[in-house]
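Troubleshooting: if your tokenizer reports a length mismatch, compare your output against this known-good record of 758 residues.
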Amino acid sequence: MSERHGTPPPPGDPARPRYDYAPDPSGAPPRPVVSVVTPVFDPDVAALRATAASVFGQSLQHFEWILVDDASTDPATAALLAELAADARVRVLRMFENRGRSAARNAGFRAAASELVYVLDQDDLLEPTALEKCCAALHAHPGWGFVNGWCQGFGAQSYRWERGFEGGADFLRENAASGRALVRRAVFEAAGGYDESLRDGFEDWDFWLRCAARGSWGATLPERLDWFRRKDPPAGWESPERVDAMRRALAERHGALAGRFPSLAPDADPPFADVPDAPAFANPLRKQRPRLLLIVPWLALGGADRFNLSLVRGLAARGVEVTVATTQAGDHGWEDAFARATPDCFALARLLPLREQPRFLRHLIESRRPDAVLVSNSELGYLLLPFLRAHCPGPVYADFCHMEQPEWKSGGYPRLSRLVRRALDATITSSAHLRDWMIERGADAERVGVAYTGIDAAAWRRDHDARKRLREAWQVADEEAVLVYAARLCEQKQPAVFAATVAQLARRGVPFRAVVAGDGPLRPALEGALSDPLLAGRVRLLGGVGPDAMREVLSAGDVFFLPSRMEGIALSLFEAMALELPVVSADVGGQRELVTPACGLLLPPAEPVREAAAYADALEPLLRDVDLRRTLGRRGRARVEASFSLERMLDAIEAILRTAREAPRPEPLLSPAAANAWATQAIEFVRMQNESGRLAGERDALAAALHAEHARRGEAESRLHRIEASRALRALRGMKRNALYRAWARWRYGADWERSAP
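Known-good structure output:
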């Protein structure tokens, strides 16, 4: 099982969320931010309508769309073009004769009002944020000549193409990028446009090499931005013979590029780089519904991230438009799950250098005009609050804190919250325990409220079909109890304690099987700890499991176990209780506010060996007694249904934000000029922290390599010692002292035979 999720359906599908993006004419820029150029020749009308829907549905609404009619003959095409031209942002150019896509694109570029031109074909689709992301990337990277993203094939074939311009000189052998891209018009003009003699495909491949020949190159953003419609049968130009012929032709035409192919400068933030404050472009959007900007670190495996997903889904169901901005680089393994809840997601580290991220967050606020900005577990988000508040005082600024972390920055995110409390209108905590902890350390009690994590109990109900299917796949008998440990495999979740506990249960002869649903940096250590022969065949590692698949895993389980070192209230406990699993976990944070003796057991933290023994004592009766499990499980579900519903959580969050808006609000901490200086220092702090992390990683890798080298050298020296001490070597040395051998060796190898003879 994998934490990644299936590809969402194409833009425009009813299963995809859709925001009614529309321009706010009161703040429209004097000219389009981007021009979209689309050659048109007798298209499938339904396909062009879908393309039009994806263009009009862009989050960047201040565009122009130039449809170049390449002498179409179908009256239905003329009718549709006239219909589309009713939008003032659409222009239709008509060619007097059919001249092919290259000529049509060149005509579109010449007519474009913007310096940035997106090339889009008549039957392909754009992700809702594609234009905005590409524009932001080109503004932030002046050395890039063009930019695109990964491509999703759909129609006759379904696949995700995860390659692009990073191939560089390999483009002389293969076109790895799609033809859909945002291009600087100056780069287009320097390259001389598209070759109009190429009418049967490959004009984009040639165009990229023409740009390279003039010293320009581009980048591919590592996320899906466009959808390429595949047909059956494929176009003739896709045949291997045609591709080989074009490869030879282009190698001859652009052979001079070999050895001098242009490359992009490294995308590094210099020390103390000036942080631009004003957004790079304007995109004011009409506001028709409540809006929230959620700033989080990533979209990945973890309880806080499942909370974020539930929050976005729940608010969307209430008609709130949520924009999500992530501030850390990494694997956003759950982004497709978020794409099913909101179309407005931005992974800032993919698009922008660190120094550009403050003004893009400002851009999002000025563009969307959210009612509230909510920060959760994002260090950069906290550090930029004074900057954002100084430039954008309109929204309510709030944060959501899950748990204190005494060993990380003297308290973790709740401490960061306290340090920037004058930039916050409200703080929301996941437990009364954490609220008290923050108030004891200086937080304003009137501005701190509790919103317990909630769960949709109707959706989180035991799936008996999934239980049967998974247990058969795991080869677990009906009467066997399955222990579920679902967590990110890191120090906080103590996988070593889990391993020691199940080993104790096995030594006691307790009948059970266990599954581990999670991944993380300590997986190799856990695998080593589970290599005990007593555990052979008892423990199954599933890897990262997505939020929807987790429901099935818990349905197949019987007891839930989470021996955390620290927690707020673990979301996995809510999920397990909703699926009628008794829970055994740690008495830390606010967990006793959820788990009572009627539905589970909480044990105080202790030294790991003692902890494992205590957890084994608590788990053994549950694993042996099916009636006890069922009784506690039913009580757990009843408790979740009565007191911890998703609706209660949403009501509490909305009430806290509403109270904050109605209360007297603090003035911005800093003037705009001082806020810009603050942002520069904040970015430098994060840059140095990232650099320290990178250097620490290099140090650890070098130390590991040195340790391995010492181990290899030690093994070699040991082998040499064994050889030198061997009976065979002693016999050989004795033979070399024999007078007959010495005479023969001198004759055979010469006077220096002792150095060269075997």
